Amino acid sequence: MGSPEGRFHFAIDRGGTFTDVFAQCPGGHVRVLKLLSEDPANYVDAPTEGIRRVLEQEGGMLLPRDRPLDTSRIASIRMGTTVATNALLERRGERVALLVTRGFRDLLHVGTQAREDLFDLAVPMPEMLYEEVLEVDERVVLYRGEPGAGTPVTGRTGDLLEVRQPVDLGGLRGKLEGLLSRGIRSLAVVLMHSYTWARHEQQVGALARELGFPHVSLSSEATPMVRIVPRGHTACAAAYLTPTIQRYVQGFRRGFQGQLQDVQVLFMRSDGGLAPMDSFSGSCAVLSGPAGGVVGYSATTYRAEGGHPVIGFDMGGTSTDVSRYAGEFEHVFEASTAGVTLQAPQLDINTVAAGGGSRLFFRSGLFVVGPESAGAHPGPACYRKGGPVTLTDANLVLGRLLPASFPRIFGPGEDQPLSPEASRKALEAVAAEVNSFLTNGPCPAPPLSLEEVAMGFVRVANEAMCRPIRALTQARGHDPSAHVLACFGGAGGQHACAIARALGMDTVHIHRHSGLLSAVGLALADVVHEAQEPCSLPYGPETFVQLDQRLSRLEEQCVDALRAQGFPRARISTESFLHLRYQGTDCALMVSAHQHPATARSPRAGDFGAGFVERYVREFGFVIPERPVVVDDVRVRGTGHSGLRLESVPKAQSGPPRVDKVTRCYFEGGYQETPVYLLGELGFGHKLQGPCLIIDSNRWAEGRGRGCRGW
Predict the structure, then answer these.
(1) Are residues 42 and 75 in the same domain?
(2) Alpha-carbon 530 to chain mean position
(3) CA 163 to chain centre
(4) Structural domain of residue 706, as residue ranges?
(5) pLDDT value of position 105
(6) Residues 680 and 615 in one domain
(7) CB burial of residue 386 (10 Å; 0-12, 13-18, 19+)
């Protein structure tokens, strides 16, 4: 995977706690490193600092941090970032005003009235991303044939509409000027039926840009799909997050000479594809960080012939992301993040707020892990920056982390090792609360040792991380024990064997770069361009020609866009989708004909009807054969294949591996003498008897017993 043309290719995953850098260097070798995502005392931007360190190490000369980096040796930069995710979670986006059709000012606030917990008696109202609402005088309705009611027009879906009231741009101008005077610079325009008749939104957007609004998000462009509530939330998210992303990108570019004009810069989207820097926007960026990990483990773990489906277990410093791969990426097209429903293609990733930096609490007699995180600054107590006690501290107290195996990058001066003493001191304060409750409670019990308290928190964290895996498998009819657990992320190895045992899995896969597999995934990812348009045709022989024509037109758009980015036609593939539902129902499924070739009774693109019935039965357990099927949307996903190759499989090794040292680790039964192996000295085919520790510079793994094997 080297860089033969003499320049560097960087793949960078900027997470909530750590930033991982995977660099393909001139000459064919790879250099990797991990650094804190936030360290204001030492650098401004972690990805820029990571690139600087690699160039410094490879070039053998110091590169001052206060000067822009020379880009003459950089061919490309690929990045996944949690900037949008964090801005959404912490509500630190742009100030936004919502422009909506008159009479619907409270539509997004009222929402769908759906509850996460059906029996919750105190349902909090979701916090809106916009702070002001302007009602726009305009109205478009379905054509009713009433004389003189309005101007008939044909929408993008083919439906006949009538414009009852054109946009009152004159009255809107003064209101928009008032927003500017109050400091609001970002607008979300959400008008009724704009998914099929976008002209009114376009007129409003043109006026806003003329008046000086730097960012205007039109719902008809953000997501041209039916259902105004999720479409409106998506447009608001784009208006709220895109300026934040643009500021980050501009700041990142300023760290380089020429602001990266001669470097290919791509960002990971939520759907697992890469997009050019200039088209990376808020609504497609929420899962930018974890998407790289899904691409990474799917390319390195899944075996197409006779292989088991894979569960991805990405445990980082702030949260844990789980996903499933069985030969193709699993996408969702409407999902909620931080209380905001987004109508955009995303990889189906479940997240739980439990990571290495999750804080530990004892509340009302219960061990609680997270959701609060110590982050990268100050970080866990063992980072020597006065941080709180975290799950990392619990593992350090249990002997499962060896300070000597970590670089000396901690403390205010970035020159000290991890501090077990700080971890023990911080955990002792929590243990005192636990034992006070046990000895003074209504049912007195013996006090717990410090190790027993730490193990209690580890068990709670493990169970929290098992739940989303069960939701992806058991809740959808899949047996978790039939899967392979692909463990990655900086903290994944510390919990992988316990998670696998709890779910009945017997195989854990830990990649050689598992500590930064999201960055590896970015290096292996493909560039994606999608085209989609609404539709209201019935699915049947009488419409197959029209559907094929629409799909062909969208396919041509995708191919042209990827060719413009330098991909030859031979390296471009496309996949077609139809958004189908039974007439009279509200549940539409985005269906691919990938596994259903065309027949005499289907469109040329494939038998979408068979795919729809198969998936409907799998997800809902029944079909409605007497109901006609309706097409809500047509979609094409174009992929420009990167052509990067994976590492070849090494030759099997003979003889027992060398034990580097023996340490004492605490497990369920108490302390045990535990051999430590260095990953760099292990070869393909080596077998280890657990319990043991496997140490590498970018991750740690715990081997447990005989019931779980890894490769």
Answers:
(1) yes
(2) 18
(3) 40
(4) 661-710
(5) 93
(6) no
(7) exposed
Query: For residues 553 and 190, what is the distance between their CA atoms, to the nearest angstrom?
Result: 26
Whole-angstrom CA distances from 611 to 343, 549, 591, 597, 624 are 22, 20, 6, 10, 15
| Helix, strand, coil distribution of the chain in percent, nearest 5 | 35, 25, 40
Taking residues 224-243, report their average pLDDT: 91
Pairing of strands 335-337, 340-342: antiparallel
| Parallel/antiparallel/unpaired status of strands 160-165 and 139-142 | antiparallel
State whether 79 and 105 are in the same domain.
Answer: no
Q: Return the CATH number at 48.
A: 3.30.420.40
Residues above pLDDT 90, as percent of the chain: 48
State CA 341 to chain mean position distance.
Answer: 15
CATH of the domain at 546: 3.30.1490
Q: What letter represents residue 663's amino acid?
A: T
Judge whether 60 and 49 are in contact, CB under 8 Å: no
Position 198 in a domain: yes
Q: Among the listed ranges 334-338, 567-571, 618-622, which one has the minimum average pLDDT value?
A: 334-338
DSSP-H helix ranges across 565-695: 608-620
Rounded Cα distance between 197 and 167, Å, is: 13
Instruction: Give the type of residue at 685.
Output: G
Quote the CA–CA distance of 186 and 176 in Å, as a whole number.
11
Do residues 517 and 297 touch, judged by C-beta distance below 8 A? yes
667-710 per-position pLDDT tens digit? 888 899 999 988 878 877 788 888 888 887 654 444 444 434 44
Of 219-223, 330-334, 395-399, 533-537, the least confident: 330-334
* Domain identity same for 103 and 216: yes
**Is the pLDDT assigned to residue 561 strictly greater than 60?**
yes
202: CATH: 3.40.1360
**d(C-alpha 472, C-alpha 324), whole Å:** 7
Residue 560, in any domain of the structure: yes
Predicted confidence (pLDDT) at residue 124 exceeds the cutoff of 60? yes
Residue 304 is assigned to a structural domain of this protein: no
Q: Tell whether 307 is covered by a domain.
A: no
* Number of structural domains in the chain: 4
Give pLDDT tens digits for 166-209.
999 999 999 999 999 999 999 999 999 999 999 999 999 999 99
80 and 156 together in one domain: no
What pLDDT shows up at residue 48? 94
Q: Going by C-beta distance under 8 Å and a sequence separation of 6 or more, which residues neighbour residue 429?
A: 389
- Pick from 226, 258, 283: which residue ends a domain? 283
- Identify residue 30 by its one-letter amino acid code: V
pLDDT of residue 699: 46
Domain shared by 82 and 97, yes or no: no
Counting other chains too, the contacts that 609-612 makes at CB distance below 8 Å and 24 or more residues apart are 609/539, 609/580, 612/539, 612/578, 612/580
104 and 79, same domain (yes or no)? no
Tell me: do 188 and 129 sit in the same domain.
yes
Q: Which residue has the tokens 């900037």?
A: 83
pTM of the model: 0.82
Residue that the structure tokens 């479409």 belong to? 231
Greatest alpha-carbon pair distance for the chain in Å reads 90
